């Protein structure tokens, strides 16, 4: 792959040439049979990737936040109570969305770098049997923590009136995900992370339990309305003009992922993450997530040395070395680097990154 920049960020990633090429080729008109086949094939691939045998997938032309918002807009009566597990920036986004839609939010926040405690969720559900949904971020991209969804599913599956809803925008493809076995009712995904295609497509997987709640919803919705999407998808159509060329690219990438085998994709990212961690530790940095058991494989968050500024380091890496990496989010904006390990990357890229970081910190801080 010819590339001008090395992107080591939590998405968008470097994009393989063949997916970029799909964007430039002729694409079917969205009111044709050829499009209906494209839509059905993409839906089927996404179902295989999220492991959803008996449910629906809806595909939106939007960034991932649109898919998240759709999971707030389609199930509730204004004033319904929901529980939001918040382990960072994207958990707070779900809280803000739920509040925007007039839901009563019970907020369960945890410090950056930590995961949720199952006992807290159990206690909240026992104290508030009126909770209609539990929201949780699968992989929290602001901290690098991967939440255990399976344990939450076991807790929530028996509750007929409570949905388990997850944002797995940066979780999917990179980590195991089993919608049916884990009892996930709605999952939001996006095109620009594990799928290695440009931003602009998002999707939601819906269980039968979630589909059964749509009719009761009274919150306003139009673009995000699942009813129209599902009805029209049965006829191979979408309510509005979708990003057809992105759909073609995502079909190709999802075909490749399934052919490669998801297990080998997870393994690859796990190994890259561990390799980068070992390099950063050897350079004297500490890791943002201390507990190995809850580390995801999208980023390696590192704490910089006192006096270093991550924004200055990112600028220098970009301008002098053609490397894009990302600073912290929230209170760790200046003191953390979030180095991505997703995309078509290998150990040589990690060596290149580490060498460049060493040069930059030598130049800026004599470190
Ligand atoms: C965990 C998570 N949730 C939500 C989003 C928002 O997605 P988008 O920027 O595509 O709207 C992101 C993007 O970085 C993310 O990593």
UniProtKB/TrEMBL annotation:
Xref: SUPFAM superfamilies: PLP-dependent transferases
Pfam short name (any one): Aminotran_5
GO annotation (BP), single: glycine biosynthetic process, by transamination of glyoxylate
Keywords associated with the record: Aminotransferase, Pyridoxal phosphate, Transferase
The keyword Membrane is assigned to this record: no
Positions with a binding annotation for substrate: 338
PANTHER family per record: ALANINE--GLYOXYLATE AMINOTRANSFERASE, AMINOTRANSFERASE CLASS V
Full protein name: Alanine--glyoxylate aminotransferase family protein
Organism: Culicoidibacter larvae
């Amino acid at each position: 792959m010819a590339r001008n920049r090395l992107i080591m960020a939590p998405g968008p990633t470097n994009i393989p040439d063949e997916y970029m090429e799909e964007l430039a080729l002729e694409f079917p008109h969205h009111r044709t049979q050829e499009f209906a086949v494209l839509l059905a094939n993409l839906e089927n691939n996404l179902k295989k990737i999220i492991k959803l045998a008996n449910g629906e997938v809806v595909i939106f032309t939007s960034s991932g936040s649109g898919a998240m918002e759709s999971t707030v807009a389609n199930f509730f009566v204004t004033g319904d109570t929901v529980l939001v597990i918040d382990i960072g920036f994207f958990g707070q986004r779900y809280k803000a969305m739920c509040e925007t839609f007039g839901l009563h939010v019970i907020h369960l926040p945890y410090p950056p770098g930590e995961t949720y405690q199952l006992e807290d969720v159990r206690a909240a559900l026992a104290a508030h049997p009126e909770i209609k949904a539990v929201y949780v971020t699968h992989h929290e991209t602001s901290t690098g923590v991967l939440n255990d969804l399976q344990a939450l599913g076991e807790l929530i599956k028996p509750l007929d009136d409570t949905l388990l809803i997850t944002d797995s925008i940066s979780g999917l493809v990179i980590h195991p995900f089993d919608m049916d076995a884990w009892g996930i009712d709605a999952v939001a995904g996006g095109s620009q992370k594990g799928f290695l295609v440009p931003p602009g497509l998002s999707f939601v997987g819906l269980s039968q339990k979630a589909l059964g709640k749509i009719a009761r919803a009274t919150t306003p919705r139009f673009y995000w309305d699942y009813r129209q999407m599902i009805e029209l998808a049965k006829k191979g159509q979408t309510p509005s003009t979708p990003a057809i060329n992105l759909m073609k690219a995502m079909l190709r990438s999802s075909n490749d992922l399934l052919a490669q085998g998801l297990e080998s994709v997870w393994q690859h990212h796990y190994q890259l993450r561990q390799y980068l961690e070992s390099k950063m530790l050897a350079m004297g940095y500490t890791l943002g997530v201390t507990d190995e058991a809850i580390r995801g494989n999208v980023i390696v968050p590192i704490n910089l040395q006192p006096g270093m500024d991550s924004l200055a380091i990112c600028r220098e890496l970009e301008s002098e070395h053609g490397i894009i990496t990302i600073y912290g989010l929230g209170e760790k904006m200046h003191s953390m680097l979030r180095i991505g390990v997703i995309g078509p990357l290998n150990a040589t890229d990690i060596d290149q990154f580490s060498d460049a970081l060493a040069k930059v910190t030598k130049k800026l801080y004599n470190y």
